[in-house]
Amino acid sequence: MQKQTSTRLRPSRLAIAMLASAVLIGCGGGSSDPSDGNDNVSDFCSVTNEKEQFLSYMRDDYFWYEDIPSTVNLDNYASVYELLEGIRSNVDRYSFILTEEEYQSRFVEAEFIGFGFSARIIDTAVFINYVYDESPADNAGLRRSDELLAIDGVPVSTLLQQNEYNAALGASEEGVAVELTWRRQDGTEFTDVLTKTVVDTNTVLAAEVVNLSNRRVGYYVLNSFIQRTGQDLNGAYNQFTDIDELVIDVRYNGGGLTRFANQAATQAAGNNVLGEIFTQYIYNDKNSANNETELFQLYEGVRQFNLNRVYVLTTAASCSSSELIINALKPFVEVVVIGGRTCGKPVGQVPRSICDKRTFVVNFETLNANDNGRYFDGLAPQCTAPDTLVGDWGHLDDPLLAEAGYHIANGSCSPDPQQQTQKQSKPESPHAYTLLDQWRSEY
User: Fold this and answer.
1) Which are the contacts of 400, defined by CB distance < 8 A and separation ≥ 6?
2) Which of 13, 19, 18 is nearest to 293 (CA)?
3) Among 118, 185, 181, which residue's Cα sits nearest to residue 152?
């Protein structure tokens, strides 16, 4: 979850988002201005100066600043990336650094160069998790749950065994063309040449009304919280009329801008939450003056429902602002979490510009209206279900969606002993799934 550093409006803050026009730009971020006097800009933004600025910033604004060693030899670190790894707290699985170009591309412009699909590797096989609208992959007919069989005629299993899978997909450059062969769940095979181009990353991957247990259920897949998410949410909610229930699918959502978590939650629960506490932002003791409370509000939202119950589908890849939806709604409406335990990120970042980089180090923790937070082991689901690929989004045999249907019909989880055992399990890995991990699965 990220916030920007513009002027606060309490308790309703319009600047929760991380905007392109964030206060700190260019080489800023230090205590001096390189345009003053005879300072040389290249010296101000040298590797040495970057590290000095970053260490100073960490000692003041890092949530766990007390865990930074009292003496740090900057010469031991070749870059700010290495410095972050060397001084971060042992409990910090979340902080990262982007270049300004990376930040602008993914968060602001919502695009990357590629084919437009995300994949998962299972043993020696590769399956498609999702496909972005109007991307080369989408136009070729690649769909969620398809198995990728070959790249330029070479079996994917061979490429994985030889550790050449990523290289076979080509460089992240426009015009790179690769022949892909894939197979649908029904056994139908396809072969086509895909050419990498600029892919627009729609943040709502699917939205429809499905019939579950004779109830009209609004179902949408929310994949990230970036600048375009507000309007994408409107597009989803505008498709829902006369719904009885709502299912928000965030199974691969690594997080992002907190204001859109607020918008999604407020559009779902409407008058049950409007004006109530969405979350409390708590900073370190050096910056306690920045502590604030944000209320539920629609932000860019146009349509709202006034639901007393919301279903949320999760996995270990549901992180940060995805978890915020759940934790924020719980004091006011029933939230039924279906799937797997979430990643466990009850903290967030205010992006900081240092020269040509944006640092995303943890600055604050979040608490809901009941002062509940600190779910570092993740949020456990009420009903567990595996994320098994059975077809495209909204397929009624999808275990997570089917489990939601069972709960809607019966008011309880399905009587599966394995699910009840999994319900108490810890996260599969101590590594928090961030947006960086999400992006690394995309090609």
Assistant:
1) 249, 251, 313, 338, 339, 385, 387
2) 13
3) 181
Which tokens sit at 157?
């299993």
Bridge-based pairing state of the strands 245-249 and 309-314? parallel
pTM over 0.85: yes
Q: Give the span between the Cα atoms of 136 and 132, in whole angstroms.
A: 9
Average pLDDT over residues 34-57: 72
Alpha carbon separation from 116 to 93, 130, 436 (Å, rounded):
27, 9, 16
Structural tokens at position 162:
């030889």
Instruction: Give the range among 28-37, 179-188, 333-342, 348-357 with minimum mean pLDDT.
Output: 28-37
| Percent of all residues in the chain with a pLDDT value above 70, rounded to a whole number | 86
